[in-house]
Every structure is written in structure tokens, then in C-alpha cells.
Specification:
Layout: E1 7-13, H1 20-30, H2 39-46, H3 55-60, H4 63-68, H5 72-88, E2 91-98, H6 110-125, E3 131-140, H7 148-160, E4 166-173, H8 184-192, E5 199-201, H9 207-216, E6 221-224, H10 232-241, E7 244-247, H11 249-254, H12 266-271, E8 275-278, H13 283-286, H14 290-300, H15 305-318, H16 323-334
Parallel strand pairs: 1-2, 2-3, 3-4, 5-6, 6-7, 7-8
Helix pairs in contact: 5-6, 7-8, 15-16
Length: 338
């Protein structure tokens, strides 16, 4: 189904959104080894089977893309082609996120990685209607102290490049290997620097991580966050605080954090009055687009097309963009409310 209203994607990981052909070309150019002879075989290395219901199977698809994206030219091309894809799919606005520290394995500096992605984004936006922002992810790798210096470097770069296209700071990675509160240093520093923040929480773990992100870190956007549904009081708190949930339906099902579309609480959360948004997460790895997510939302998860418009209005309101642009997007979206 085609959707005529402006589409917004607030939760989109760069390393999960690169075409298999591009990754295969980049790997061959760089001598990165992989066990595939054809593009079809290579695609199976970086795209999950539609029947995937294992977080481990899902996450292992990132290793090869990250191993390939270890120089500026590769990151530039990945960012450029992602913006091209978003434009082809008639996405009005997207926030692309990545963790620069994951691209330093072969000597590249975090700053160089961010500059390469920004350059690719800016060049690709020229002459196209899509607009984007860049979110830099600090990482949870298990022990919050293990990569503290790298995480704080990410925050420092976000501040230094806040006027060059960096929109916010996020925390991504393994959830539940240590208390989320151990990463308070990331968000304390971000607040000191007056940076926008979002935080992965409440996906593989329960509502307590969402509580930490909202009440301790002060985040008003939560990556995934659907397990907030198990805490009615926290749902009401999030509603009163204007917290936005960055929901990614197919990703949640493939990672087995929800069993089925029908069992996903996103529609119930929306009906409760929470600011729910729909996003792709990792469109190539998951084999989705915004439009296919919308189709699944309507046919499998109980949403209506009017719900989709309403959720894009929430996305516009939560986007890390100037107020004038927010108002323009919201005004346009409101014309599609019947």
C-alpha cells in the first residue's frame, strides 16, 4: 500500500541499513573475507531470514557490516546510499544513528568516522527532498566502565559537531548485562553540554530500564521501550512527561522481544495516550521499509491508517529539528487527519 502522508523514521541504524550489493563490493575492495560466492549467498550473511525469532541470529548479522565499515570512504558511501534509498522511498525526515567507536578497529578516529558519515549525508541530500539528522550512539558492551572513555569521546564529538548535523546522543548495545544506571555518566555529560538525548531501553529488558532512562537520565525519547506496557503507573508517568516511544515492530519480533505483531502492545500503548511512533530500526537486516512496517501495523497489529498519521505527528513533534520545521511537518500531516 502507498501512503501519501509524510513519513518519518526516528530510529534507523546505519550499519543495519546498507544494501548487500554495496557491502559485498566494499568487502571485496578491502579484502575482507566472507563465505559467499554470489550476491544471493552474501545476502544471507547480512539479512535475517523472515522467520528469525532469535536475538543472537539477528545481532550476528551486524558483525560483517561493521567489520567492512572501517574507513572513511566506506562510511561515506554507506551514508550517501542510505539517504538515496530514503529519498526513493519518499521518506520526508529520518534520524540516522551509528556508534563511531565501533569503526575504530583499523585505526580510524571517532571524529573521522563522524565526519565521513556527515559528508555522505550532506552530499546525498543535495537536490533531494529527504532531510536527515545524525544521532551518535554511546555503547553498552557489558561493563559500563570498560569503554567509558570511548563513550565520553562520543559525547564530546556530538557537542563539537552539534551545528554540523549531529542531532543527539543515544545509548545502544547490549541491554541487561549491567544496570542501565551505570551509564549515567553518558547522560550526565550530555546534559551538562545541553545535548538532545534518546536511550535504548525496555526492549529485551522490562520496564525498569525505561524508568531509569526517563526518571534518572531525563530522556524524553526511548528507543523501543515497549516493555513499559507492563507497568501501568510508569505508562501514566511517561504520558504526563510527553515521552515518545520509538517502536520497531518487525525488529522486536525477529529479536523475540515480542512473539507476534498481534501480541505487540504498541497499539494498546497508543490507545492509552502515549506518544508511539513506528520506525524501521535496521531496514536491510530486517528486510523492511517504513511502508512495509505500516502494512504490517495495519494488517497484523491492529492499527488504522489514521493511527499511522497520528504516530507520524508524534514523530514530528519528537524529532530533533528546529521548531519551525516541526510545525511545518505537523501542519502537513494534520491535513491527512479525517
Amino acid at each position: 500500500m502507498k501512503y501519501k502522508f509524510p513519513k518519518i523514521d526516528l530510529h534507523l541504524h546505519l550499519d543495519g541499513a546498507i544494501a548487500p550489493r554495496t557491502l559485498m563490493d566494499l568487502a571485496r575492495e578491502r579484502g575482507v573475507e566472507f563465505k559467499a560466492e554470489t550476491l544471493e549467498e552474501f545476502t544471507k550473511l547480512v539479512v535475517v531470514d523472515p522467520s528469525c525469532r532469535s536475538v543472537n541470529e539477528y545481532l550476528e548479522k551486524f558483525e560483517l557490516p561493521v567489520n567492512i565499515l572501517q574507513d572513511e570512504q566506506a562510511l561515506y558511501r554507506a551514508a550517501y546510499e542510505l539517504v538515496e534509498r530514503l529519498d526513493r522511498e519518499s521518506v520526508a525526515y529520518a534520524e540516522i544513528r551509528f556508534a563511531p567507536q565501533l569503526h575504530t578497529r583499523k585505526g580510524m578516529k571517532q571524529t573521522d568516522a563522524v565526519n565521513a558519515v556527515l559528508e555522505g549525508i550532506k552530499k546525498a541530500e543535495l537536490g533531494r527532498s529527504v532531510e536527515t539528522g545524525l544521532i551518535l550512539c554511546a555503547m553498552s558492551l557489558g561493563d559500563a566502565a570498560a569503554n567509558k572513555d570511548a563513550n565520553l569521546e562520543t559525547v564530546r564529538i556530538a557537542h563539537a559537531m552539534r551545528n554540523e548535523g549531529v542531532a543527539a546522543v543515544d545509548l545502544a548495545g547490549a541491554e541487561g548485562l549491567c544496570p542501565l544506571s551505570d551509564f549515567d555518566y553518558v547522560f550526565n555529560r550530555a546534559k551538562e553540554l545541553s545535548l538532545n538525548i534518546t536511550c535504548h531501553a525496555g526492549d529485551s529488558q522490562g520496564p525498569d530500564t525505561v524508568r531509569t532512562a526517563i526518571l534518572e537520565f531525563g530522556s524524553r525519547r526511548i528507543g523501543h521501550g515497549h516493555h513499559i506496557y507492563e507497568d501501568a503507573e510508569l505508562c501514566e508517568t511517561a504520558k504526563q512527561l510527553g515521552v515518545t516511544l520509538e517502536i520497531c515492530l518487525t525488529s522486536n519480533i525477529q529479536c523475540a522481544t515480542r512473539k507476534t505483531y498481534a501480541a505487540h502492545p504498541a497499539k494498546k500503548l497508543l490507545d492509552m495516550g502515549l506518544a508511539v511512533t513506528l520506525n524501521t530500526d535496521n531496514p536491510v537486516i530486517a528486510g523492511v521499509s517504513l511502508e512495509s512496517e505500516y502494512d504490517a501495523a495495519i494488517t497484523k497489529a491492529g492499527f488504522t491508517e489514521q493511527d499511522l498519521v497520528a504516530m507520524n505527528i508524534f514523530s514530528a513533534g519528537a524529532a530533533f529539528i528546529p521548531e519551525q520545521k516541526k510545525r511545518g511537518l505537523i501542519k502537513t500531516l494534520e491535513t491527512f487527519i479525517k
